[in-house]
Amino acid sequence: MKTLYSLVNDILEKDGAAVEKVDDSLMEVILPDSLSKTLNLPEYLVFAFNDKSAELADQVITYDSDIINGLADVVNKRGAFSQWTTPDLYLKTDKVEEILQKKLILNNATYRLNGFEEKVVSYLVLNYKYTAISDEKKENLVSIVVNELTLSTLDDFTNRINLFDKRSEAEEFSTLNTDERLSIRNILYAGNRCIKSRIKRELYDFEKSMNRRLQRDINRLESYYSLLKKEVEKKIAKKGLIGEEKERELLRKKAIDVEHKKKILDQIDKYSIKIECELISALRIVIPSVVLKVVVYRKKENKGVLLCWNPVLKELEKISCESCFYHSSSHFVCNSLHILCPDCYIRCSSCKKWTCRVCDPEKCIRCGLPLFPL
Length: 374
Ligand SMILES: [Zn+2]
Ligand SMILES: [Zn+2]
Ligand SMILES: [Zn+2]
Hints:
The chain is α+β, with helices and mostly antiparallel strands. It is about 35% helix and about 30% strand. The structure holds zinc ion (3 copies). One zinc ion binds next to loops.
């Protein structure tokens, strides 16, 4: 994942600016005439990336700054999609079976390798920006890479691609057969499902902290309102109230109860996390690969799956869960042969039988009872 600092650095350098790093949060910049006019900024200036360094800089940059919107326009003019082809890479074709056994772990199914071939494979790098809004705001840029032949999802490897010689940037592999690419709808579906699980994982601590604060505030409300209610009860007992007077106090107690419940709902709303996520750009990377054909067996059924040995990562790509499209280290196979991560192949809490999130994302496939939402 790129930091805001390195993102701004890359965009400015690509557009001809001279960028000098002062420290991790300060950047000295000389803009070319065209960029200075587009962004409406002087030719020489200093950017700060946090409030602490603000005094030393001309501008503080956050994701919401006008400069970021200006830079987004600069990038948009270049196009939101580009393609890059790697030069020939070393392909590993020995010990393929051994590598497969280490990497493909199916807890309740067997498989066998049914051959492999060298092929040119394309990947779509999907760059998302998400904002999580609660009592605090958190935002991040995340890249998800989807193998367009197998739908395996990978963490970003574009930083490693940059290490390769870029001379072949304009080259096209004549052997690339686009028929072998899955439809863009499938690829985006996989990317969008994967980003959802990725954000959930990234926000784990954020969510925990919001829940902790919510619980703290609910406890405070609890002690405040129970004190108020006790005072009403004491008043009734102390003064020995009866009839209309007692009724009036009991109504007051009821009103305190209603206000208490309303305040709890307000707090839940305050700490609930609203997430906005948007796909901002895409890059297709085309690389030669070794494609392994694997047959998965479960009970009397079987199905073929493809896995790629990735020469940039120098490893066999993990298979993705067919429900959340996240790549875990081991998988389960349901009776309809969906391949699932341990979070998506679950034991139903009421009938205790195993159920699959692809066969039914919301209900247990055995007893029909609703599952906890993902
Ligand atoms: Zn899953
Ligand atoms: Zn299934
Ligand atoms: Zn069930």
